[in-house]
Structures are given as structure tokens and as C-alpha cells.
Amino acid sequence: MQHPIDPKIDCVFKALLGSEGNRRLLIHFLNAALGDDLPAPVVAVEILNPYNEREFLDDKLSIVDVKARDAQGRFFQVEIQLLVLPDLPARILYGWADLYRAQLKSGQDYGALRPAYSIWLLGETLRRGLPDYVHRFRMRDEQGRTLLDHGGIWLLELGKFAAGRERAERVDTELERWLKFFTEGEGLDADALPEWMQTEEMQQAMSTLKGFSEKEREYHAYQARQNYLRQQSSIQRRLEELEAAAIRAQAMTEQARAAEEQARAGEEQARAAEEQARAAEEQARAAAEQARASENRERTEKMQARAAEEQARAGEEQARARETAALQREAAAQAEVERLRRLLKGAPGADDGG
Fold first, then answer.
1. Pick from 212, 208, 217: which is nearest to 57 by CA?
2. How many domains is the chain built from?
């Protein structure tokens, strides 16, 4: 080829699966991607939004997904997304819901609804921590019982596929063949295709790449889309860097605030400890004063007790003195009585001798 062409660039991708001349490729891809999940294989399709190269020359925001309906009335959406943005899961679910809802026309009831299948090829990893590169989302409960078998969402992670099959030349399924084509197609030599590319579908796909490579108008459209996607990728990376920087700055601010709060809390704790120490000191002083007052009361009580004891002793001495005086008076009185008795008995002249 004159120029290498990446089949993941949206205009190339839509030309591969969304142009009228490549209906056979779309049918083959749908059967390869959905496989046994389809009750019956796809045999014919009507492309609802066929590829138009002017979309990509005149409108950088052109619709790049592929929508189709098969002979059984089933609806299909195929889209490639090279950048995984935070709101991508919601966008994927909304896209499937819109594909399912848009089937009903005015006056139709729910019995007119047919299965809707949404297939997304992702250039970056969405389901981190999981080794599988194919993810199927169906309407089932926790026991695996189906509410309604009306399609679902399929995610194909190209990065995981490429990492798990690096330098592998053998393909085991048609889905692996397609994913290998999308991840390695840009580096293929159209004149020396490897064995895994030796099928009618892959040769037709390679012919589409050659058309973009060798036709001036198509190649300019390809370059414009590639430059636009690169610019979008650069803008997204810059936004992610700025958001990461803002998150880091916010984290540093929060850490500074937390450190300030901790310092304030430490200061408050120190103040509280100081207040507690002062209170303890005041309590100690009060206790000392109480102890002194108690000691003074004890001294006073002892002195009062001693004084009372002294008073009691003095009273006892006074009582003894009074008793002694009383005894003395009694003895004197007794002596006087005895004398008078003797006088009454008296001997003559006893009065004169007295």
C-alpha cells in the first residue's frame, strides 16, 4: 500500500462495516462477535446509516457508529471508541437503550420490539482488573435467569486482546481474526499477507484499507480524521493531567488543613492540660488549707479538752477542799458536842476550869 492505514480510525472503521459494498463484512463480523449468543445467525442486513465519505470531509462530529437491521428484524449497533472516558459506561448503556426504544413507532405496542445488540470495540481498557477481553451484558438476575432475551451489550477490549496474543500468528475463532485485523491491520503488507489474513472477508477488508491508502480523496479524509482524533486524544490527556493536578492540589490543601486542625487540636489539648494542672494545683492548695484548718481545729479541740480537764481537776480540788473543810467543821462540831456533853454531865467546878 502507498500509505499505512489504521482500521481503528473511525472513517475507516465505518467504511469497513458500514458501507453498502461491505455488507458481507458486517454480516461476518456480527456472527463472529455474537456467535452462539444469537438464536440464529445473521444472513442479511439493511444498513440504517450507511457510510458517506462526505460526512468525514465536511463534519468532524459525524456519526461514526454502524446501525443495521437483519432479516429477522433484530437491530445491531457497532461502534469503536479509542479513548475510554469516565462517562463511557453510561454512554454505552444509553446507546443500547436508545437503539431498543427507537424501534417503536406511534401506535405500536411492546410486542413489536425485537432484540437489540450493541457491540463496542474499545481502544483502551475499561474493565480493569479482569483478564477477559470480551464482556457480555444481558438482562439476567443473580441466578442467571433471563428476564427477556432481547439482546444486550458486548464490549471488546482491543488492548487486552493485543497484550494477550502478542506475536501469535494462529487464530482460533473468527472473532480473534477480526480483533487481530483491527490491532495489527495498520502494519500489514497488502502484497504479503500472513496466513491468518487469507480469507475472503479479510482480503475484502484489506481492499478497503488500500482504497484509503491509494485514493487521494479518501487518504486526505483519513488523515483529517486521524489528526482530529490525535488532537482529541491530546486534549483528553491534558484534561486528565490537569484534573490529576487539581486532585493532587486539593489533596495537599486537605492535608494542610488537616495538619492545621491537628495543630489546633494539639494546642487545645495543651491548654486543657494546663487548665487541668492549674485546677489540680488549686485543689492541692485547697486541700492544704483544709488540712491546716483541720490541724488548727484539732489543736483547738485539744486545748479545749485540756482546759476542760484542768477545770475538772480544779473542780475536783475545790470539791476535795470543800469536803476537807466540811470534815474539819464536822470534827470541830463533834468535838464541841463532846465538850458540851461533858459539861452537862459535869463534874462540879468543871465550869471554872474551862
1. 217
2. 1
**Mean pLDDT, residues 239-266 taken together:** 84
Residues spanned by the domain of 121 = 10-214
pLDDT, tens digit, for every residue of 269-289?
A: 989 889 998 998 999 898 889
Structural domain contains residue 198: yes
What is the full DSSP assignment across 77-100? Answer: EEEEESS--TTHHHHHHHHHHHHH
Residue at 203 is within a domain: yes
User: In this structure, which amino acid lies at residue 254?
Assistant: E
Half-sphere exposure of 244 (CA within 13 A, CB side): 6
How far apart CA 350 and CA 244 sit, in angstroms, is: 148
- Confidence band for 230, pLDDT divided at 50, 70 and 90: low
DSSP code for 140: B
Residue 297 has pLDDT above 50, yes or no: yes
Phi, psi of 353 (to 5 degrees): -75, -20
**What contacts 26, CB < 8 A, 6 or more positions away?**
17, 18, 45, 47, 66, 68, 78
C-alpha closest to that of 81 among 69, 65, 101, 103? 65
C-alpha to C-alpha distance for 51 and 57, rounded to whole angstroms = 12
> Among the residues of the chain, which ranges form H helices?
10-18, 23-34, 53-58, 88-101, 158-164, 174-184, 200-214, 216-345, 350-353
C-alpha cell at 136: 457480555
Q: Which residues, 6 or more positions from 66, have their beta carbon under 8 angstroms from its beta carbon?
A: 14, 17, 18, 26, 47, 49, 51, 76, 77, 78, 79
pTM (predicted TM-score): 0.66
- pLDDT at res. 301: 86
So what's the pLDDT on residue 316?
Answer: 87
Judge whether 322 lies within some domain: no
- Measured CA to CA, the distance from residue 140 to residue 352 in angstroms comes to 158
Task: Compute CA 35 distance to the chain's CA centroid, rounded to the nearest angstrom.
Answer: 37
